[in-house]
Amino acid sequence: MCAIHQPNLFPRLTTLAKLFAADTWIVLDDVRFNRRDYQHRTRLGALTDPDRTRWLSIPTHLPKGCQTAIRDALIADPASARRRTEAMIRQEYRTSHHWAVLQQALEPVWAAFDTGRTAAVAEISTRVLLDLLGWNGRVQTASGLPARPERSQRLADLTAAVGADTYLCGTGGMTYLDPAPFTTRGVAVAPFLPPAAGIWASARRVTSLWALAHLGPDGIAARLQTLTGSPDSLEAAA
Questions:
Q1: β-strand 74-75 against 60-61: which pairing, if any?
Q2: For residue range 169-226, what is the model confidence (pLDDT) as tens digits?
Q3: Which helix H or strand E contains 191, and what residues bound it?
Q4: What pLDDT does 172 receive?
Q5: Distance (Å, rounded) from C-alpha 120 to C-alpha 198?
Q6: For residue 180, what are the CA distances in angstroms to 57, 93, 171, 186?
Q7: From the CA atom positions of the chain, what is the Rg in Å?
Q8: Mean pLDDT over residues 38-49, rounded?
Q9: Can you name the residues that pair with 5 across neighbouring β-strands?
Q10: Nearest Cα to 227, choosing from 214, 211, 209?
Q11: Can you tell me the distance from the alpha carbon of 105 to that of 232, in angstroms, rounded to the nearest whole number?
């Protein structure tokens, strides 16, 4: 099973759950950077109340303007951005019982600021959380794989290129996906529909760091493992 997703900065729980359910995550690094998306920002939910939120953003310079690919976006001031990112996350979650584990796991993210690339920080921020949850999948980048340009065709080609027979599609993708290219490639399309109750009530809005700080890696991993089972188990994952 394959999931294809842009690198997101400390992704929301719905995004992290979709990647966790896949065997392969293809990092969609060669599409245009979108300042309104989550490629350089995330919404922090307060530990005691996830509905109380604030934005954490990495100031990003686009060398080619709006045509800049995600992989080419540059951090405007890496040292300052690192200090601010660390400080904001520490401020929100340092009182969590799970902070010591989270703090140690996030060290590679701070080091990634030295690359000067926003996408590197975003991708590493996702990788470390998947590792923390015990994910055993593999990561590949779209820019290194053969695929045709049309949107649905490209997703089908990328899925086939990594040897997957199923494309795991989020709710947003299902609204525009053309199934024909997948059928032609012999690739099934599986919708990923997480619950909406419990910890999932805020899962589409705030970073998954909130859930990890609230319930700990083991607690979240157990819920995500439930999601990879049968559809009948979704309610239990709340």
A1: antiparallel
A2: 988 888 889 999 999 999 999 999 888 899 999 999 999 999 999 999 999 999 999 8
A3: strand 188-191
A4: 83
A5: 32
A6: 38, 45, 18, 10
A7: 17
A8: 97
A9: 27
A10: 211
A11: 33
Residue type, 50: P
The model's pLDDT over 55-95, given as tens digits with 9 standing for 90+, comes to 999 999 999 999 999 999 999 999 999 999 999 999 999 99
Asked if 21 and 1 touch (Cβ cutoff 8 Å), the reply is yes
Count of positions (residues) in the chain: 238
**Using CA atoms, how far apart are residues 5 and 64, in angstroms rounded to an integer?**
22
Task: Specify the amino acid at residue 199.
Answer: I
* Residue found under tokens 């590792």: 131
pLDDT, position 182? 97
Predicted TM-score (pTM) of the model is: 0.94
Q: Which of 148, 196, 143 is nearest to 171 (CA)?
A: 196
Half-sphere exposure of 161 (CA within 13 A, CB side): 20
Backbone φ, ψ for residue 44 (5° rounding): -85, 130
3-class DSSP state of 32: strand
